[in-house]
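Handout, page 2. Input:
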Amino acid sequence: MSTVRLTTAQALVRFMIHQKVRVDGEVVPLFAGVWAIFGHGNVAGLGEALYPVRDVLPTFRGHNEQSMAHAAIAYAKALNRKRVMAVTSSIGPGATNMVTAAALAHVNRLPVLLLPGDVFASRRPDPVLQQIEDFGDPTIAANDAFRPVSRYWDRITRPEQLLITLPRAMAVLTDAADCGPVTLALCQDVQAEAYDFPEEFFAEKVWEQRRIRPDQGELARAAELLGKAEKPLIVAGGGVLYSGAAEALSGFAEAHGIPVCETQGGKGSLAWDHPRNMGSIGVTGSSAANALAAEADVVLGIGTRLQDFTSGSRALFAKAGFAGAGAKLIQLNVTVFDGLKHLAQPLVGDALEGLKALDAALGGYTAPAGWQDSASRLIHDWNQSIEAAMAPTDAKLPSDAQVIGSVSRTLDADAIVVCAAGGLPGELHKLWRTRAANGYHVEYGYSCMGYEIAGGLGVKMAHPDREVVVMVGDGSYMMMNSELATSVMLGFKIILVILDNRGFGCINRLQMGCGGEPFNNLLDDARHVAPSAIDFRRHAESLGAVSEKVGSLDELEAAMERAKASDTTYAIVIDTDPLIATEAGGAWWDVAVAEVSQSDAVRAARADYERAKTRHLGD
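Output:
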């Protein structure tokens, strides 16, 4: 057997280069690049290995380990998990900065390869710089924090361990059911250690998308249940997009007359004006979708985790139910874990293959005409509500909804909107009209403040020919903005719309809704000796973006035209009202209110909460 002598880091990089994937019939590299911030824990090992191949496997420099990982994760999401990126850091704070990003990827079932440096496997110089020391267990290091937020985790303490762990890691990154973050903690002495690796280990490997077909028994039970439905409803999740099943869903809904509602992850599965699209579902849902959910007797979930914002804290689907032997929920999902949630009838399989099989099994079934007519009336009324919410008024400060309306009116059909946390995702879920596939990119599984700008960069890298618009509140902007400079440096233009409501407006509204006084959320309500006066326009400009501040919705729309014409990243700042949110639509959300309080308002809110629990959950 012929061998080649390489360091551990060189072998890892060579293996990565030879991993390929078939995308739309074309074989392309699985890894689109490596994000890197070098330190003493990776520069001499992995850094040395990446330099000679920088034109084959590009290395991108970021400003923060967490935001680099966000960019990599967003890239994979924007390409429906077909390609991935890797992210490397030194040990210590560089590594633990990535833990939040790993959790985000884990929640959203998104692939990313994390390569943090680690301590010396030999322990000879212990404790090395940035090494934590467990008093009772010398095998514990900071990278153990990645264990609960990784789908696959390993610490490389010998070069030959790569022979076993790398194929397993690639399998996780490319498998629809197991997909998620992979963490390989690389001991810094081992990175530089050489070994005679078998040359065949570096043979080209082409990964294909595995499409799991439904079990015939599960399929028969699901078809029997759905085929008897008088008021069926489909909940489309992110799995529809990851599977490439949007077109199949459109045909299925049309053929069987079943209305479709969309989760945050599934938004864009159908064009907004598709006759069967009822809009968003759940706490941030449309009135049309939520009214149908309350009446539906059978619910078919496709590729959804059914988190509490989707289910209205398990209270939304009143007749289909989420518990008991009479539950009429079907979960078409590639994972058994999600397929069994809420005591559903599981239909474990790929969304595309599952829809094809279910379509054939249903034959000529169509939902009753009265149910279809009701859905059409409801979505017509909802669209009028959307227009009203986004329409300009003479208010001193615009609402988030009005800003969304102005931005959306200026964009072409294939533009992509990016957001993550705060009040904006709820408004976007309700109001944004997605017209093209993958035109809606909102990270709401982990709802991670600070994802937005780095995520927008990753989306632009995935779709360089499409306009990418990042909508971000001032709170999220302050959390993480440094990759704005990276977008300028790399030439990946994004349009950034910064909505400044002077603080955490969404949580301020929630705090007040729970009977609390405004406290520590808006800047003016936080402890201070001088009023905050952040100039976001000048800050974005200092990072290299063309930037301007506008004072009205008309000025915003004019600025958007200038931003579209710009060759470089463009930031637009607009002040907004922190107290206004779209009242139309929505569903109950279980947020516990303090049971004991000195405040009359909190006690009243607790009484309202108890009544709501009884009404929605029967407690």
